[in-house]
Write a structure and sequence with these properties.
Layout lengths: L1 E7 L4 E8 L2 E6 L9 E6 L2 E5 L20 H23 L4 H6 L14 H20 L2 H8 L7 H4 L22 H14 L1 H10 L5 E11 L9 E5 L20 H6 L5 E6 L2 H10 L2 E15 L7 E15 L7 E6 L5 E3 L1
Helix pairs in contact: 1-3, 1-7
Length: about 350
């Protein structure tokens, strides 16, 4: 179900909000029928970073089971979302790799050697990035074309148009299984000259200001109730789990209250709740989800060998919203950073 359609002509992107699973997702339409469109989770019409909706967990805490009628729809949506998150980050990296792609050999493979000149190293690394992008973003039709060897594989069976997407780090080699060096090189040169320029243009069109308005979500365990202080202590060291695009350590505090959250030894903030409320609450929930309204910044690459995109963020609001479910449908409270009760180690 599409509820919004906004065309950004300068970036050649269409945002379409679809009701998938428990929340809305924003769709970044592909500029070519050779590539998949990307579907990313949102919260209140902005991108969702950090901990993601697991899809299989319902708002009441129960799970979607294989025998449920909607299981395969949920499973396919998870497949699309996993592929989309990986591909989105890879596309965002493109703008910071112009120096590599400009020296990349587009007619021959650059061989990996023990001692490589800087230009050779960059060319080799760029070719590996093109391979990853092609695997992550190509439609099933193009995957058959570039990564299946009809002489040695059943391409129709391997690449079914069944609604599932390539696993993010399932990197197939050019030409497919058992392809000769001629087939491999032909697949690479065709892709890099015919389709890669379109990917470069797409990547550079995504959030060209290097700023993304969104929400950072962190998962916390309730732990034991503190009767003396009247609530649950939420340790920020829990927030360091891996998530989409942003990490907790990327928060850039701009005032004293925010700096309290980022104490080097970790901070615990009090989620206030009466004993009567806590007893009932703890019987239903073991985890909660903290949501911060943020402005994300794309800050380049750590280095081209590590291939890590640097991201930081600042807070748009001092209010942390608290939800009981990963779909962020059941809000159970708030904590204001400016007035929070906290302690550090």
């Amino acid at each position: 179900m599409k509820t919004k359609n906004i065309l950004f002509a300068s970036a050649l992107i269409v945002f379409q909000h679809c009701l998938w699973g428990q929340g809305e997702e924003v769709v970044y339409d592909s500029p070519s029928n050779s590539f998949i469109s990307l579907s990313l989770q949102t919260h209140k019409n902005k991108l969702r970073f950090g901990t993601q909706d697991e899809y299989y967990i319902k708002a009441d805490g129960t799970y979607v089971k294989p025998q449920d009628s909607n299981y395969y729809d949920v499973d396919k949506r998870m497949s699309h979302n996993m592929a989309s998150k990986y591909a989105f980050v890879e596309l965002l990296k493109i703008r910071y790799k112009e120096d590599m792609f400009s020296v990349m050999d587009r007619s021959l493979f650059t061989e990996r050697k023990q001692n490589m000149y800087d230009k050779e190293q960059k060319s080799y690394t760029a070719q590996q990035q093109v391979l990853a992008l092609a695997n992550a973003l190509s439609t099933k039709m193009e995957l058959k074309r570039f990564f299946c060897n009809e002489k040695g594989e059943d391409c129709a069976s391997t690449f079914k148009e069944d609604g599932y997407y390539n696993e993010p780090r399932n990197i197939r080699t050019w030409g497919g299984r058992g392809a000769s060096e001629f087939q491999q090189l032909r697949a690479y040169t065709t892709f890099v000259n015919e389709l890669f320029p379109k990917l470069q243009q797409w990547g550079n069109s995504l959030h060209p200001t290097n700023k993304i308005d969104g929400y950072f979500v962190a998962k916390a365990q309730l732990g034991k109730y503190d009767f003396k202080d009247g609530g649950y202590w939420l340790d920020t060291n829990q927030f360091y789990q891996n998530g989409f695009l942003l990490r907790w350590r990327g928060l850039q505090p701009i005032n004293t209250s925010e700096r309290k959250l980022m104490h080097p030894n970790g901070t615990s903030i009090l989620y206030k709740m009466s004993p009567e409320e806590a007893e009932t609450f703890s019987e239903k929930y073991k985890h909660i989800f903290l949501v911060l309204d943020v402005m994300a910044s794309l800050d380049g690459m750590e280095n081209y060998r590590a291939d890590h995109l640097k991201t930081t963020y600042t807070l748009n609001s001092p209010v942390i919203e608290i939800y009981s479910d990963d779909g962020l449908t059941n809000k159970v409270g708030e904590i204001n950073i400016e007035t929070m009760v906290y302690k550090t180690r």
